[in-house]
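User: Could you go from structure to sequence for me? I need the amino acid at each position, not a summary. Structure tokens:
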């Protein structure tokens, strides 16, 4: 099992893998360490990640970003309105969840956010498999700590759509903390932990976590978030500023044109990054709209003023997290920054100001800390890697309660209970007790809906016990219900049971010859209570349907890519061969052949640029190329052979010389070998030598532009022949001087026959096979 961790970001995602005794962040198909979190649709195929980014400007209505902000939401969620500011695709309702309407394969189609994320995860899976050269089936994904049950379940569903199993969803600040803690060998005892505050300001959201580290463990003490504070809010403030400026300067209304807005937003992000390191930055947007090239500039001072609204919100989550941790700022040993937006000097100074001026640290890799920590989390769960023990005590951010109808038999019974309060450990199991006679329902939901993101439904799950066993005494039955907040931060009803107590008499024991009085012992037997449970995960049948659709779309994409590839191959062959016919192939082609091939190449070229050839099937391109090769290959073969033959002749001559000199050597090394055997080697060498000289002479008489009579393959075959013949004779081991315990049956004694002429027997191979390597220990420092 490959060990893989994903930082699923709003703008980009990063993939970590465990290898080379450590963790690597891998690169995608264009060698970038971050893959754009984008999915796009076209007339023939989808484009996901980098290709989606490349075509974004020309296809922005069918390009969907903000994937992690959409999943698990409904179209009516007020926060989806906010997302629309950053999205150009049309958002629609898809079976009760938010989705996008796009033009795909020439038709209007809709996909739910879960499907879109599934597509994206599929791309990350392919990037990883491609890099590791093994299929990837399991990976750990980092999600914001503010994700609710429904969002977490939707992420797992999306992964399932991509055929992926997720052994754990990890809160992203916790992943950062894990990556931090596991590398520290000097952590204190638990009585006196080291408290660190982690601050992540990314593209769309800000997370703060206070974490206590001690030997071999971390405890998340508190978390706080601003779900709408990130780089994109800064880009947007800039965009509004320049849109207003361009209204007067160029008389254009950028905000009225999605395309112009998109172009300006790209320029603003660039400008923002320059301003992180410079006091002033230019803005240039070519052909923003109406063929106008817009330009402007901004000073650091103006910039900080413009984004003051965003900056002023930074203090709240920091102070909240500190207060909830129960610590003072002096008890925090370091403030570690991650996330692209913490590169902005004004963001840093606001963080520092909110925390009493304490210096900030950037000891972690700001871009990759989440992916690294997430990969460590995956390594813990993998049998193939040994990692230094490190225990993660994470907490839930939102309180969860269960609710039920009052039992008719008990007017004083409460009707709800907070089972997992804020700060409850993850994972955690709690047993609830109910006294019932009738079937009953229990609902699990978030206890404080006002604290949840946007319009997220607080409902989590329902439990229905259909059949409550009757109590033998006619009393209410005591039903125990096991609830669990699992490693993903997802709550579920696990089991329900009734405890039956049996008193069994145990056989009396004789003590000092006297029979002791019989003892009664209580035995508790758990009897399962049948129940059904509902939650917001997709029905298995729907997941299967999406999975099938996904596989189909994946196959279509692959076919389109393969077709494009074959088309390019045909095009390349046409130009390449035509050029070479006058150049390096010139002496290897007869004039009639040349005329024929040139004609065919021209025909293929004309076809490629015809309507038919522009958009043909894979097999049509393959067919055309194959037909050209039938004529072209013999010419290429003659040319290649003229070079290969020389090399093969030299190799054969070298082998012949080597064996000949060994067979005729007076060296003591060969003294034990039978003279007759040595003579056979000499004769064999002479025969082959003669064959070679004859063949070379025959070949020399032929013109270059006809098929050769002597090929490099013939020569290599002869070389194999002499190797097979000579090596066993010339490597025959010397008899041992002292004979100890002779083996009765003649097992082959060390004479090795090489598998093929190019392979030399390796005495070390057997040993390596016998040693079963222990799983590699990961180097965490
Ligand atoms: N040098 C820089 N100066 C200013 N901003 C920067 C710089 N480098 C990156 N950014 C910004 O950081 C943001 C991306 O950060 P990051 O990769 O942490 O976000 P993400 O993980 O995709 O988003 P999120 O964590 O919110 O889901 C972008 O808004 C980008 O413009
Ligand atoms: Mg992030």
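Assistant: Here is the amino acid at each position, in order:
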């Amino acid at each position: 099992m490959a060990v893989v961790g994903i930082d699923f970001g709003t703008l980009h995602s990063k993939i970590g893998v465990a290898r080379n005794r450590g963790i690597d962040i891998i690169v995608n198909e264009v060698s970038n360490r971050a893959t754009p979190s984008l999915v796009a649709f076209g007339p023939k195929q989808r484009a996901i990640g980098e290709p989606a980014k490349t075509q974004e400007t020309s296809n922005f209505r069918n390009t969907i970003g903000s994937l992690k902000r959409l999943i698990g939401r409904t179209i009516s969620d007020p926060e989806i309105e906010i997302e629309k500011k950053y999205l150009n695709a049309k958002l629609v309702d898809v079976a009760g969840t938010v989705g996008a309407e796009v033009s795909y394969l020439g038709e209007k189609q809709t996909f739910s956010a879960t499907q879109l994320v599934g597509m994206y995860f599929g791309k990350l899976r392919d990037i990883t498999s491609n890099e590791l050269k093994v299929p990837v089936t399991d990976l750990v994904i980092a999600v914001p700590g503010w994700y609710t049950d429904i969002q977490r379940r939707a992420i797992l569903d999306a992964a399932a759509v991509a055929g992926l199993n997720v052994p754990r969803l990890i809160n992203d600040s916790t992943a950062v903390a894990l990556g931090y803690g596991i590398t520290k060998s000097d952590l204190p005892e638990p009585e006196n932990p080291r408290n660190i505050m982690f601050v992540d300001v990314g593209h769309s959201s800000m997370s703060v976590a206070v974490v206590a580290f001690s030997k071999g463990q971390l405890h998340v003490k508190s978390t706080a978030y601003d779900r709408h504070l990130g780089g994109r809010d800064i880009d947007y403030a800039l965009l509004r500023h320049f849109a207003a400026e361009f209204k007067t300067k160029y008389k254009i209304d950028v905000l009225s044109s999605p395309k112009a807005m998109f172009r300006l937003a790209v320029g603003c992000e660039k400008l923002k990054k320059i301003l992180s390191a410079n006091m002033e930055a230019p803005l240039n947007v070519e052909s923003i709209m109406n063929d106008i090239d817009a330009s402007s500039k901004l000073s650091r001072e103006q910039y900080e003023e413009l984004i003051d609204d965003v900056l002023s919100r930074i203090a709240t989550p920091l102070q909240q997290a500190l207060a909830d941790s129960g610590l003072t700022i002096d008890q925090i040993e370091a403030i570690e920054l991650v996330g692209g937006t913490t590169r902005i000097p004004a963001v840093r100074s606001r963080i520092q100001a909110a925390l009493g001026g304490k210096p900030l640290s950037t000891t972690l890799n700001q871009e990759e800390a989440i992916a690294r920590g997430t990969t460590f989390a995956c390594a813990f769960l993998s049998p193939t890697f040994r990692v230094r023990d490190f225990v993660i005590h994470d907490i839930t951010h939102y309180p969860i309660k269960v609710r039920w109808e009052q039992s008719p038999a008990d007017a004083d019974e409460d009707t709800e209970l907070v089972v997992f309060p804020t700060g409850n450990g993850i994972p955690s199991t709690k047993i609830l007790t109910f006294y019932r006679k009738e079937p009953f329902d229990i609902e699990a939901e978030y206890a404080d809906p006002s604290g949840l993101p946007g319009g997220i439904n607080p409902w989590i799950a329902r439990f229905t016990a259909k059949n409550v066993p009757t109590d033998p005494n006619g009393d209410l039955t005591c039903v125990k219900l096991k609830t669990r907040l699992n490693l993903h931060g997802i709550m579920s009803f696990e089991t329900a049971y009734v405890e039956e107590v049996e008193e069994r008499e145990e056989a009396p024991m004789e003590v000092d010859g006297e029979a002791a009085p019989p003892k009664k012992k209580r035995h508790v037997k758990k009897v399962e209570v049948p129940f059904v449970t509902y939650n917001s995960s997709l029905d298995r049948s729907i997941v299967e349907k999406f999975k099938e659709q996904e596989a189909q779309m994946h196959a279509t994409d692959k076919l389109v890519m393969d077709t494009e590839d074959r088309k390019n191959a045909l095009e390349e062959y046409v130009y390449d061969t035509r050029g070479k016919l006058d150049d390096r192939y010139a002496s290897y082609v007869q004039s009639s052949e040349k005329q024929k091939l040139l004609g065919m190449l021209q025909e293929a070229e004309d076809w490629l640029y015809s309507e038919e050839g522009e958009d043909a099937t894979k097999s049509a391109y393959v067919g055309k190329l194959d037909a050209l090769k039938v004529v072209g290959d013999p010419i290429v073969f003659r040319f290649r052979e003229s070079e290969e033959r020389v090399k093969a002749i030299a190799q054969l001559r070298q082998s012949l010389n080597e064996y000949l000199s060994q067979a005729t050597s007076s060296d003591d090394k060969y003294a034990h070998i039978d003279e007759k055997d040595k003579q056979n080697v000499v004769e064999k060498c002479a025969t082959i030598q003669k064959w070679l000289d004859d063949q070379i002479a025959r070949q020399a008489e032929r013109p270059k532009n006809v098929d050769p009579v002597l090929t490099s393959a013939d020569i290599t075959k002869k070389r194999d022949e002499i190797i097979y013949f000579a090596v066993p004779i010339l490597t025959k081991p010397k008899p041992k001087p002292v004979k100890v315990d002779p083996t009765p049956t003649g097992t082959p004694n060390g004479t090795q026959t090489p598998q093929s002429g190019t392979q030399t027997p390796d005495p070390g191979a057997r040993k390596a096979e016998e040693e079963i390597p222990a799983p590699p220990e990961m180097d965490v420092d």
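One structural detail worth keeping in mind: Residues 742-775 have pLDDT under 50 and may be disordered.
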